[in-house]
Amino acid sequence: MISELFHIGPICIYSYGVCMAIGFLLAWMLAGRLCRKIGENPDYLSALITWIMVGSIIGARIAYVLEHWTVEFKQYPLHVFRLDQGGLMFYGGFIGAALVIFLFSFITKRKIFHITDLLLSVLPLGHAFGRLGCFLHGCCFGFRTDGVWGVCFPAHSPAWVEQVKAGLISMQSPHSLPVLPTQLIEAAANALLFVFLFALYPRCYEKRGFVTGVYLCGYSVIRFLMEYLRGDPRLAVGPFSIGQTISIGLFLLGVAILFLVSRMRHEQYVR
Q: So where are the chain's domains?
């Protein structure tokens, strides 16, 4: 865990923010590369991705605060604005980015799947770097484990704090008990999803909506399964966590989009 990388005078540079910035930058560059590969002008991406960054961060923060309000923010509401301390929820960022994309599509008259197919083919790489930032910050940790893959986070880390609250360790403990590094597992899963979608997009970009549907189905399965490995506090919705509930919805949406794409292709073939 290396939450603080270095200081520039009074300004602290956090590993979480650096990883997010690297992820956004790489996704931006690779999206432009895909545009050029299929003969399109990528200039519109500059404005779009800038607004997506803003929308996704706001959405991710709102979702995290809502899920952790009682535990983290009820007594200290001003901590809502402390983004330097981490605390972003991917699905909240995903929803915030989606709203920006819908608005951009409406203003520019671009087809929505034209945009989402391109962006979702590179999003998993940016997400993978975000999960590396989670690992360096210590949030989004997994359940207790005695396996050789277990990771001990230092005192005052999120895992340490939760284990102190649960009475598993004392305040004098220099580190947490070993937990599963779910951040690294999800980072690896997202990296594999990126490799697949990045190779798929140039072959299927004319089938508008296909890459979008594949991403929604693929990532929702990854996230649904990952939630069973998480050890940090999770908001429950019946038998599932909030992350799993959203995953189910996105999986069904992905299936519906793939069905729509297949129907459109069939009708075109008939004609």
A: 4-143+181-270, 144-179
